[in-house]
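## tool: complex_structure
## caller: assistant
## args:
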Amino acid sequence: MSAAVAAGLPAGLALREEVRPADLEAVRAIVASTGFFRPDEIDVAVELVEERLARGAASGYEFVFAERGGATVGYACFGPIACTLGSYDLFWIAVEEGCRGQGLGRLLLGQAEARIRAVGGRRVYIETSSQPRYEPTRGFYHAAGYALEARLVEFYAPGDDKLVYVRAL
Amino acid sequence: MSAAVAAGLPAGLALREEVRPADLEAVRAIVASTGFFRPDEIDVAVELVEERLARGAASGYEFVFAERGGATVGYACFGPIACTLGSYDLFWIAVEEGCRGQGLGRLLLGQAEARIRAVGGRRVYIETSSQPRYEPTRGFYHAAGYALEARLVEFYAPGDDKLVYVRAL
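## result:
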């Protein structure tokens, strides 16, 4: 009973919205494979899956997974921002290192935006780091229609600003 | 066994850090008394107390309460921001309507900052609304040494921006 979406996807690729216990390890493996995140950041990514498994939709975390040949190779995690009317956070979007450069990230982001739009969401926010190694990440968001709206100096750590991107749906 | 702090406080006032089940109703009453918040926002304030009671320090929510004559008349709620080194959010600060204008807010904010500084915190962030009725709130933060660092247009709702204030400790 997968919620996989078949129409309009590249051959062999499926999207799934249902969250399963096996996603705990899948998300850890995907996020770790990118080489972008510290261990404590990887733990946070996995905790969002745990929260979803424990509390369901009440967790506030929604997921889209990309599967290829039965393997989960990427995902996006998003959810409504408390105390707002129609603003959403994209918390995580990551693609298995060996599957990058094939448009999976763009596909996952588009699917997340479609689901947000379908429930009346107005704006999607993405927070990321000012560190040089995130330049490809920032380029990805820019190409997907996101605009830089704010910079919080030294938010993450000394020398590491938070950048806030937004897209109005 | 109260964690009340006695030195240097106005007569009859005590500060307390321990969170008790009675704070669920105290926080609801304090936040509601201000007339500033929607019912869903008041629920969120109470949920943070619930989280603290259920999970302790692992909740990520720290509190300072102001008591006068045994009654809880104000509080601040703050905590470390996940995936940052030394950045903290001030989630809530509210004083019972009948006790405003006596410096309790400034006292609570100062105590929260002292605790953040004591554990190595570098920066405190406060998010608030651009709505005209929050002008006194913004004046309070400005007077307390907070600077406006970012504005997220229509974040809360159409016509209601999010303002991000910061103070470097």
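## assistant note: Residues 1-6 of chain A have pLDDT under 50 and may be disordered. The first helix of chain A runs from residue 23 to 33. Handing back to user.
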